[in-house]
Design goal:
3-stranded mixed β-sheet, single chain, 12 helices
């Protein structure tokens, strides 16, 4: 041990340039190791949990456009199959896992005997129990003061009962072209029922806040074409939610029948940028490690004469290797700990603005693991150099080197 400490002190005093370069290599490689790990975890966390960045700011929606070509339409039956399949994997559907349901809204052209063509809106709630009535919408309408005299239940949705909430006029309605709409009541049958796509529906409620009848999704014929739709979430949509839902719809309906709003296309750029930075970090780490090995190997070359004298005095070759390895570890450990402390206390808090999930990637166990990886790597790299330089006869090594202990 005394020779290890003596070599270390001699290294600091007589080989200042090499010592400073070796110190710089350790500091830089420590920073790169910790940054690369944090970046990797930040990347994984972002790609799985990053909110869906819609171009129109609707980060809580996933939108679909369905094919309207004859023979390729998406029907109510097709969507029911997809929604039932989604309900069996709600852990992959829930946005950020903070809600136990999602709202699905879609649009269709329904014939309800009104003289003006209006697009009808259909709404359902998806839970782990399946497709349910949009009760939360009805409750929100009532709590916000909107008039609603009645609405259907989960039982109606499950059984496909022919019931509806019908619109009523709240004053005179004039469209953007200046055309005054007739009373909604003109679309009702004489017996007070409503005809929707040729089927009679019982009117169980009225509201002036809607412009088309609202009815259970399952009450429509399964061959009813649907034009488009979207999922609305309580929390921001994540990359994991988006990938699962969009891929399920594409797999079940066919890529030629559905167009998914590619709102997470930016994630491809994120993946590419992260991959590029990680590759660069890995290359830099390898280069720094190689520089460190070259510097230490150069130092050992200059010490061959000293090492040979010690061997003549009876020191075994393996003890010489251990002495040099001990010096390598004694050089590496303190500067690694100093560098890791600086990174964790000074550097990391300053870059969290750009890598929001990086700081949460570290804990005590992770720091210990990174320390172990770094030390083991350093021992292997330096061990290669030490063993390589200890080859050859003592006489040959006496002819090399310039410094003694």
């Amino acid at each position: 041990m005394q020779y290890i400490i003596k070599n270390y002190r001699y290294f600091m005093k007589k080989e200042k340039t090499i010592f400073l370069l070796a110190m710089a290599c350790i500091i830089i490689s420590t920073f790169i190791l910790h940054f690369a790990y944090g970046l990797y975890q930040n990347k994984n966390s972002n790609l799985d949990n990053e909110p869906n960045m819609y171009v129109d700011g609707k980060s809580k929606w996933i939108e679909f456009e369905f094919n309207k070509e004859a023979g390729k339409e998406v029907t109510r039956g097709d969507l029911t199959h997809c929604l039932e399949k989604l309900s069996k994997n709600m852990d992959l559907v829930q946005a950020n896992g903070n809600s136990d349901f999602t709202l699905f809204i879609c649009y269709a052209d329904l014939d309800w005997n009104f003289p003006i063509d209006l697009e009808s809106t259909l709404r359902v709630i998806i839970t782990e129990d399946g497709i349910e009535a949009p009760t939360i919408i009805f409750e929100n309408m009532l709590s916000s003061g909107q008039d609603l005299s009645g609405y259907w239940t989960n039982k109606d949705e499950e059984e496909g009962n022919k019931v509806c909430v019908f619109p009523v006029n709240d004053g005179i309605i004039t469209d953007e072209k200046g055309v005054t709409w007739p009373e909604y009541s003109v679309a009702l049958n004489k017996d007070g029922t409503a005809s929707i796509n040729g089927t009679k529906y019982s009117v169980i409620g009225y509201s002036s806040w809607i412009h088309c009848p609202m009815m259970p999704f399952s009450s429509l014929d399964e061959n009813t074409p649907i034009k488009r739709g979207y999922f609305a979430f309580v929390e921001d949509v994540t990359g994991k939610n988006f990938d699962y839902i969009s891929q399920l719809f594409i797999d079940e309906l066919g890529a030629d029948r559905i167009t998914v709003d590619d709102s997470l296309s930016y994630r491809k750029d994120i993946k590419y940028n992260y991959r590029t930075v990680l590759i660069m970090a890995a290359i830099m780490c390898v280069l720094v490690a190689m520089n460190y090995m070259i510097l230490y190997t150069y130092l050992l070359e200059r010490r061959k004469r000293t090492t040979s004298i010690l061997r003549i005095c009876g020191m075994a070759r393996w003890k010489g290797c251990l002495m040099n390895m001990g010096e390598c570890i004694l050089l590496t450990v303190p500067f690694y700990l100093i560098s890791a402390t600086i990174y964790g206390c000074i550097v990391l808090p300053r870059i969290r603005e750009y890598f929001t999930r990086m700081q949460g990637a570290y804990n005590f166990k992770i720091y210990i693991a990174l320390f172990g990886i770094y030390i083991m790597t350093s021992v292997v790299i330096c061990g290669i150099g030490v063993i390589y330089n200890s080859r050859g006869s003592i006489v040959l090594q006496l002819r090399k080197g310039t410094h003694n202990l």
